[in-house]
Amino acid sequence: MRRFAVAVIAAAAAIVLLAFSGALFGHSPWSLLSIVASGSVGSRFALASTLLKSVPLLLTGLSVAIAFRAGVWNIGGEGQFIVGGLAALVASRFGIVASLAAAMLAGAAWASIASAMRLWRNAPEVLTTILLNFTAIHLLGWSVNGPLREHAGQYPQTDLAHVALPEIGGVHFGIVIALAASVFAWWLLYRTAAGLRLRATGLNPNAARWAGIRVGAQLARAMAISGAAAGLAGGIELLGVTHRLFERFAAGYGYSGIAVALLAQLHPLATIASSLFFGALVTGAGELQRAAGISAGVATFGQAVVILTLIVFEHVRADR
Amino acid sequence: MKRTLLVCVLFAVFSCQQRETAAPSAAAPAPAAKPFKAGLLTPGSINDGGWNAIAYEGLQRIKNELGAEVSNQETKTPPEMLDGFRSYGAKGFDIAFGHGFEYQEPAKQAAAEYPNTIFITSSGNTVTNNVSPMRFQIEESTYLLGVIAARESKTGKAGLVGGINLPSIDSSFVAFKAGAQSVNPKFEVKTIYTGNFDDVGAAKVATLSLINAGCDFIFHQANEAGRGVFQACTERKVRCFGSNKNQTDMAPDYVVASAVVDVPAAFVEMAKIVKEKRFKPGEQHFGFNNNIVRLEWNDKLKASISPQTIAEVDRLTNEIKAGTLKPPAGF
């Protein structure tokens, strides 16, 4: 109950601070809030747009939640998202299922590079996953300028993927996959023995080891599942939204996943609400810039406020 | 239990906001005369001092010179671009600019839904009834730079430094080469792409290697990284050209001339065309003819250029304006 109250306070703090930041530009807080609301849920397009943005956030949020639950600091969602998109594009000629499977495999493989380095050379995954993000960004840049460049050869982007996810009312089918994934993640973490081992490892690796759990294997498994979720996010984004790759393909979804997961207190089902909140925030911020001339960067500001508020509460609790 | 409550409250927060919205938007009175409205979507921050800043300057001039109502948004992903365009369409904007080739697909999609708004992309090749790209014919100017280089070079070689190999950049280089070889078919033009637009060091190293290879004129298309080109030219006392804006102040003793593209003026011109209902779908050309692309000399160095070369450039300028000379383009 307490954790839930903390999450609500964090979200509310973001909204309140956003509203009052507008006062600096001479806008009343109410008018700003109404702009954000109408821009995120006020029309059919706005709502569809919020949902479209929530889908990758939900999956990258799950990716982070699963890893953090197991005590693995996977900050590499951005890179895993990108390789997921790359694999999905290459495999798209074999159909949607193959394409998304390839995305998950690629994300898992990319994340596993970090767990391999952790297990064999004890390299901290916080560093290796971040560095692998940059590697993936450059891999994508090279791909769209080189081997995967569109056949017309005009712009640094790929050709369209061979398949696309079906759409229902402006929202692609990926939303169903993402919701199913969060239920699956919940079931895995809280209803299976494997999930118990993952969580036990996260809570206290030493105790887990004494209980006979192979901690290294848990770490590798959590990282692979986490990478698969981020890779799937990239694959769905490609087949459902962008349909082709270009250099700015990931657009920060991997990093935003961290905020989504933290707000959800690392719970797979709460991640659904959390991703909707951030999806609405980003979409509403766009309208804020169009209508009130306030930089869309305020959405990032909102994310920061949420994370900071959560950290403050964590510390207050730890001090007691 | 906790989870369900969290979901409920988050939704409650949003639905409250939504109710607050309904009142003011419904109460908004219909304006007497419909003002001209222009929107701009940029792929990056309008404070970048370059590509995006220049578009924003154009938008501000549309506001001041045409008395338009303006709006802008920074959009990084295709869904954001589509949101932006749709929002402008829904609000009855007359013109919506997307500042880059990456806006073509979202423009096409939004344009089908909002036929009364005209969607303009900065470069690109997508044309529908209400979607068209702006095409800046910088080739007209770089062709002349090639002529100057070939006439004034002592080594018979010039070097080109590019950022990323994009069609618009390659095209300006093609024209430079054609200009130089129209004077001297054996004139050698060497090109290096550094692969990005912000690595000043890489641009400097590329320039030095071109100078070492004997080039005594350097032209760049590396945007912000162009600074490195001017540093190298100043160090090695080699003459060079500015691109996109008058860059004489980057190296006052070595920049002979600049190929200037007055992008803000093009934005105003484009908005004017739409406002006066003169818009016709198709590539919107901006070049020497409407004075948006220009060749600007560095007055301080102009005296060091032979009068014959200057006369030849003036003559070719008039031919290009008259349409009798068409510099080749790469696409």
Account of the 3D structure:
The complex is a heterodimer of chains A (320) and B (331). By secondary structure, chain A is mainly alpha-helical. Chain A has a single domain, classed as Orthogonal Bundle (ABC transporter involved in vitamin B12 uptake, BtuC). Helix content of chain A is 75%, strand content 1%. Chain A has 13 helices and two strands; from the N terminus they run H-H-H-H-H-H-E-E-H-H-H-H-H-H-H. Chain A has helices at residues 2-21, 29-41, 44-69, 77-91, 96-121, 125-145, 174-191, 193-203, 205-210, 215-242, 253-263, 270-292, 298-319, and strands at residues 167-168, 171-172. Chain A has a two-stranded antiparallel sheet. In chain A, a hairpin with a 2-residue loop joins strand 1 (167-168) and strand 2 (171-172). The longest helix of chain A is centred in the C-terminal third of the chain and has 28 residues, at 215-242. The mean pLDDT of chain A is 89. Chain B is an alpha/beta fold and 331 residues long. Chain B folds into two domains: 34-136 and 262-294, Rossmann fold (3-Layer(aba) Sandwich); 139-260 and 298-322, 3-Layer(aba) Sandwich (Rossmann fold). Helix content of chain B is 46%, strand content 20%. Chain B contains eleven helices and twelve strands. Chain B has a six-stranded parallel beta sheet with strand order 2-1-3-4-5-11, sandwiched between helices. Chain B has a six-stranded mixed beta sheet with strand order 7-6-8-9-10-12, with helices on both faces. In chain B, strand 3, helix 4 and strand 4 (118-122) form a beta-alpha-beta unit. In chain B, helix 5 packs parallel to helix 6 and helix 5 packs antiparallel against helix 11. The longest helix of chain B is centred in the N-terminal third of the chain and has 26 residues, at 2-27. The radius of gyration of chain B is 24 Å and the shape is elongated. The termini of chain B are far apart. Residues 1-31 of chain B have low confidence and may be disordered. Chains A and B meet through helix 1, helix 2, helix 3 and helix 12 of A and helix 1, strand 2 and helix 3 of B.
